[in-house]
């Protein structure tokens, strides 16, 4: 499962590129199919059409939006090279149905409780009903504007 954003013009701002990572879309699709992913991959495409992909294989499979995003953001920080970018994407692979429960208490227990509520709201009212903070610059009115322009508008 993957989600990619192709920009209509080259993007030079790292924060904007990170804000368009659609990790919550990937997480939502995983959960809606009852799946978890063991491998998270970041895809970057540059103006010369060269492509760079980097991935991490996890010890425990996940369907958490926050976990998928944090892994993709970490990969971006390690391998993003210099701007501009013309595409960013996130892919989940190594899919599993269900998973073994961990014996270690997870930090994200509160987040895990709110995720089903978000999924219910998204399925009932659409994906734009609630936007997560990492997607706040990715709205219909402000799409593809540099972050500095968006901040001036606020």
What report would you give on this structure?
This protein has 154 residues and is of the alpha+beta class. It has helices at 14-19, 23-32, 65-79, 109-125, 147-153, and strands at 2-11, 35-45, 51-62, 85-97. It has one domain (2-153): Dna Ligase, domain 1, CATH 3.30.1490.100. Helices cover 36% and strands 30% of the residues. It has a four-stranded antiparallel beta sheet. A hairpin with a 5-residue loop joins strand 2 and strand 3 (51-62). Helix 2 runs antiparallel to helix 3 (65-79). 24% of the residues are buried.
At CATH level 3, the topology is Dna Ligase, domain 1
Cα-based radius of gyration, to the nearest Å:
16 Å
In percent, how much strand structure appears in the residues?
Answer: 25-35%
Q: Strands of the largest sheet, in order across it?
A: 1-4-2-3
CATH superfamily: DNA polymerase, Y-family, little finger domain
Order of helices and strands: EHHEEHEHH
Précis, in short:
Helix content is 36%, strand content 30%. By secondary structure, it is α+β, with helices and mostly antiparallel strands. The termini are far apart.
How do the strands and helices of this protein lay out in sequence?
Blueprint: E1 2-11, H1 14-19, H2 23-32, E2 35-45, E3 51-62, H3 65-79, E4 85-97, H4 109-125, H5 147-153
Antiparallel strand pairs: 1-4, 2-3, 2-4
Helix pairs in contact: 2-3
What descriptive keywords fit this protein?
alpha+beta; Dna Ligase, domain 1; four-stranded antiparallel β-sheet; 5 helices; 4 strands
């Amino acid at each position: 499962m993957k989600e990619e954003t192709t920009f209509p013009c080259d993007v030079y701002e790292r924060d904007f590129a990170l804000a368009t990572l659609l990790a919550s879309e990937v997480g939502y699709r995983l959960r809606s199919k009852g799946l978890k992913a063991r491998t998270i991959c970041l895809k970057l495409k540059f103006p010369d059409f060269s492509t760079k992909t980097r991935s991490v294989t996890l010890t425990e499979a996940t369907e958490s939006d926050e976990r998928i995003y944090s892994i993709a953001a970490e990969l971006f920080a390690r391998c993003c090279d210099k701007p501009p970018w013309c595409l960013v994407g996130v892919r989940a692979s190594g899919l599993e149905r269900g998973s073994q429960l961990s014996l270690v208490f997870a930090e994200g227990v509160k987040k895990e409780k709110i995720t089903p509520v978000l999924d219910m709201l998204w399925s009932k009212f659409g994906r734009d009903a609630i936007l997560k903070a990492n997607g706040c610059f990715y709205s219909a009115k402000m799409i593809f504007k540099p972050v500095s322009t968006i901040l001036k508008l606020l």
